[in-house]
Amino acid sequence: MKFGIHNPSWVYGPDSAEAFEAVRAKAQWAENHGFVWFSVMDHLIQISGVGAPDEPFMEGWTVLSALAAVTSRIRLATLATSVGYRNPAHLAKIAAGVDLVSRGRLTLGIGAGYFETEYRQYGWEFPARPAVRIRQMEEAVRLILAMWTEKRTTFHGRYFHVEDAILEPKPIQKPRPPVMIAGGGEQLTLRAVARLADACNIGGDPDTVRHKLAVLRGHCDTAQRNCHTIEVTHNNSWLLGRDESDVAAKRERLAERGPLRGFAGTVSKAIDLIGQYQDAGVHLLINSDYRNDFETHELFTSDVMPHFA
Q1: In the chain, what are the helix, strand and coil shares in percent, each to the nearest 5?
Q2: 309 with 35: CB under 8 angstroms?
Q3: Coil, helix or strand at residue 128
Q4: Which one of 82, 241, 256, 295 is CB 3.0 to 4.6 Å from 113, fit for a cystine?
Q5: E-strand spans in 112-262?
Q6: What is the pLDDT of residues 217-245, one digit of tens each?
Q7: Cβ–Cβ contacts within 10 Å for residue 289, how many?
Q8: Paired strand residues for 201
Q9: DSSP summary character for residue 110
Q10: How many Å apart are CA 279 and CA 301, to the nearest integer?
Q11: Does the pLDDT of residue 258 top 80, yes or no?
């Protein structure tokens, strides 16, 4: 079991101008304390369940570029880029640049997108049918892979096209950076994972993850793909305390920002639950740190991660 940190919130203090300095420090600390992954959300406004829509929020690829320059080992990713937010050929170019700056540490996290409010605010067309957005995402991944690996790319798809397009320099990673497709839709999304992805990101409790991976194995069989070549990641919010009184104090202190999501409990209970995710097939467990609780990260490094070393 490997461990990562996801940064969904930019609320670190009263001065929003210090947000990047805070996330830089978090990523560098994570890199130096055994975490192998650091990701940011690719949104323009905050999503419900994490924070208020008008709270400060930094654009994901801008942040990844900066983090690529101030870290040296940790893998960097968006979790996850919406297919609707950028022309995929342009996204291929952006991602290749981040891979170059990071010297080969990028994972392209991509998904079909869902946040209609954000689409409307920023003037993007929002296809109402999820199946359309998923097909767009799958086609975009095919185009991106072509742009990363072909000398010139001509691509005529249902949704996207390029003509004799040049992408230089190519990404550092060979044959190209890994692609993680986020989502657990059983008919289309997991089929796209089986066809195209190097990693998946599946939510839910351990039984749900186990079921989704069984569905994924079926799609891999159809695609004649070895399912074991796909890294399984799981992203959830973890808030840890040493004992029940510590957890209760954190609940009270953080309640002013709304109800807690995900897991909030003791280290021992976290170890038990993480073991269940490991048994279900998760390779990389990511803490979606939406309350920016530094003690939780310290407890992961001192008490949780050694248990799974």
Answers
A1: 45, 20, 35
A2: no
A3: coil
A4: 82
A5: 152-156, 161-166, 179-182, 199-201, 231-236, 238-241
A6: 999 999 999 999 999 999 999 999 999 99
A7: 20
A8: 182, 233
A9: E
A10: 21
A11: no
